[in-house]
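REQUEST FORM: STRUCTURE PREDICTION
Request ID: SP-0412
Submitted by: Lab K.M.
Chain count: 1
Length (residues): 109
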Amino acid sequence: MAVQRWTDEMLDELALSLVELRDNIDGLRITAQALLQVAAQQQRDTELAKQDMELAKQDIELHRQDIELAKQEMELFKQRQAESDQRFNILLEEIRYLRRASQGDEIDS
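STATUS: Completed
RESULT:
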């Protein structure tokens, strides 16, 4: 087995390769850190979006309840209006009856 000696040129190439390798590793480290920051920001954005979605769902539920309450109030209003109309019609019939009775008394006199 022959022993190979390192020449200055070979050592310079090796040193240059090591510098390039270190630069590549540093570049990968910077890229990895940037990707981690992007991922962390996306995670925060996702959490905020989930919170916004939950708030929107709660708002929708509150609006649904408001609509249901408004429907119930409308039904109650309609019922009271119908009762009021019925009382009005009864009073109107009583007035007509009394007028007819009064007119009949005037004719008899």
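NOTES: The chain has a mean pLDDT of 95.
Reviewed by: T.R.
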